[in-house]
Amino acid sequence: MTNALAGRTVIVTGASSGLGEATARAAAHAGAHVVIAARRQDRLNALAQVLAAEGASVTPVVADISSHEQCALLIETSLQIAGAVHGLVNCAGVGTAQPATREAPEAFEAVQRVNLFGTYWCSQAFARVAPPGSAIVNVSSIIGLTSVQVPQAAYAASKAGVLGLTRDLAMQWGTRKGIRVNAVAPGLVPTEMSDEYPLAVHEAVCARTALGRLGAPEEIAGPIVFLLSHQAAYITGVTLAIDGGFTLH
User: Is residue 155 annotated as a catalytic residue, yes or no?
Assistant: First the structure.
C-alpha cells in the first residue's frame, strides 16, 4: 500500500520486536512518519537506523506503557515532534502461561497493565489531541476470541478486554471526534512470546488452521496499515481476525 499513509504520523507501541516492528516497517513503507515506542532503547535505535537508511521518517521514543504517565508523555512527545498525530497502533503486549490456580495476583495484574490498561491510556491521550480522520488500531489476539489450549487466563482476559474497549471507544469517538477505532485479532505468528510455546502447540495450531500454517508478522502488519488508511474510512468498531482460518472451527 505505497503512500497509503503519506503525510500522516503514526505511533506504534511495542515496536522493538515482533508484530510491532513489522507494523512500524509497514507504516514507514506506506509513507508515514512513524514514532516507534518500546522499553528497549537499543532495539528501537537499531530499527530507526535501518528505516532511516531506507529513506523512511522515523523517531524512536522509549516508553513503558504500563505507566499512565509514560503513555501520556509518549503522545505528548509525538505531538511535539511531528506537530500532529493521525494514527496509533497499540501493539505492545506481554503474556504468561501459568495455570490459573498458580498465577500470582501481581502476575495477572502486570499483564492487564500492559495489554489492557496501556491500550486504554495511550488511546485516551491520543484521542484528546488527534484530528478528525485519525485512526486507532488495537492489537488483540485470537486468544481473546477462543482458546489455543494454553493456560493463559491473564492474557485471554486482557485481549478480550481490548475487544470490548475497541467497540466502546469506536462508539464514543466516531461522531464526537471523527476517530475510527478498530482491532485485529492475529493468529499465532513467530514472536518472542510465541517462541516460548512448546512445538506441540505450534503443531496443534497449524492442524486447526484452514491454511495449515502459522502467520508471518508482515501478514498482520499489512491489514493494520489498511485500517489506518483513508481506504478504511467507513470501518470502525470491528475486529478483524487475521488467523489463516483458525477461528472457523
Answer: yes
